[in-house]
Amino acid sequence: MQTTQFQNFIGGRWVSSESGNSYPVNNPAFKNVILGTAQRSDIVDAKRAIESAHQALSRWAETPAPQRGTIIYRAFELLRARKSEFAKTITEEEGKSLSDALGEVNRSMNILEYAAGEGRRMFGQTTPSELPNTLAYTTRRPLGVVSIITPWNFPLAIPSWKIAPALICGNTVVFKPATSTPLSGINLVSLFEEAGLPPGVLNIITGPGSAIGDTLVTHPMVKGVSFTGSTDTGSRLYSMGARQLKKVQCEMGGKNAVIVLSDADIEKALTAVVEGAFGSTGQRCTATSRLIIEDAIYDNFISALIDMTKKLRIGYGLLPGIDIGPASSEEQLEQILRYIELGKVEGATLAYGGNRITGAEFDQGFYVEPTIFTDVEANMSIAQEEIFGPVLTCFKVKDFAEAISICNNVQFGLSSSIYTRDLSKAFSYVNQVEAGMLHINAPTLGGEVHLPFGGTKASGVGTREQGTEAINFFSEITTVYVDYAG
Prior knowledge:
Layout: E1 8-10, E2 13-15, E3 22-27, E4 30-39, H1 43-62, H2 65-81, H3 83-94, H4 98-118, E5 126-127, E6 134-142, E7 145-149, H5 157-168, E8 172-176, H6 183-195, E9 202-204, H7 209-218, E10 222-228, H8 231-243, E11 247-251, E12 256-260, H9 266-278, E13 288-294, H10 298-310, H11 330-346, E14 349-352, E15 371-374, H12 381-384, E16 391-397, H13 400-408, E17 412-413, E18 415-419, H14 423-432, E19 437-440, E20 456-457, E21 460-461, H15 467-473, E22 475-483
Parallel strand pairs: 7-8, 7-10, 8-9, 10-11, 12-13, 12-18, 13-16, 15-16, 18-19
Antiparallel strand pairs: 1-2, 3-4, 5-6, 6-22, 11-21, 14-15, 17-20
Helix pairs in contact: 1-7, 2-4, 2-6, 3-4, 4-5, 9-10
């Protein structure tokens, strides 16, 4: 059977890389199944895409924002009609269950719908001037060409929540999806092409970031960079962009904690922890990776947690009833297994799971059991470092104060959650926890598209994503004074 060859999209045309090189895109559930080949782009391709975006900039920036919104809304309608098709691609290339993939498509649809509406809400301010006969107001203008660099774990939603606000603000875009999951990004660009986006406004180049990532940040025509990925890479890109006075935002790692106090709704907390820790195979920046339990309920909660985890169904994400799919790649699987071994060496108790899953239906994929560690110390590597897999580390604490201390004792500050019926403790938690997104009696996962998304400390730098914060990042404020005294 002939393998589908996926191309770059530059200047309104689907084209091969200048080098003519490509690479296979594999299904993590069946490592020998090739979904297609994508272009292995190099610096020449990156420069071509940036120049194409620069050429299209003035026309797109001068297009009234409501008209830009109409095109984005058309893309939303097309995505709604192809929801199942897009979800299937996500499962095939990333590995998550179909239900999780459908949730990602829904999130993408919400983002497009919201961004389209922002075309009629590109508000400035009018304000009294201290000078007589003077009108003072602000207006927005686009940054220019922006580079968007996205990870593999949400191959449709994260590109959507960067690209849509960039476009509605009048920027032109060069988009590089993750190397291992380019197909959802290609689908998204095709959607915008069909929706009527002018040539050159949105360009996609695929391939390893090591070859083209620096060019997407340092090229003089690039005025803004939006990145999601590891803290190490994000920190490097941010400093690189800052040296050239570019506007940069980086959404990076997380080590998110759920605190369960003794007065919590136990069933509600259990469901949230299992979904937060093991849904999407734990491969979410907002996944629950730490569980902090008050000692009065610790033993019973851990027992119930293990019982609920045992009931999860593991397998190929397109099969009905599957809760957990494979890790996204062999490299990711090996990283998860390394951390599991490290946890045992450090002295934590492996309470459940911890093994690679083998057998007839699993041998061709990258499957690992959902894993629970107890007797974890706050300074252990598994308690401090982002594993990005279905591994949950559990802590027993004597009281609320100790829970807050452990919650904050990491370099990251993305998302956190507390389960309690005590309103006083809930708001004390809000005032003390060092994280960008806080949940009371709700999971650490996700966020609504009209609200800011992002974290503190090593979890993020630059303006937050989504909502009005996305508009703030992808536009510049101009202040205007008009003396009409004549």
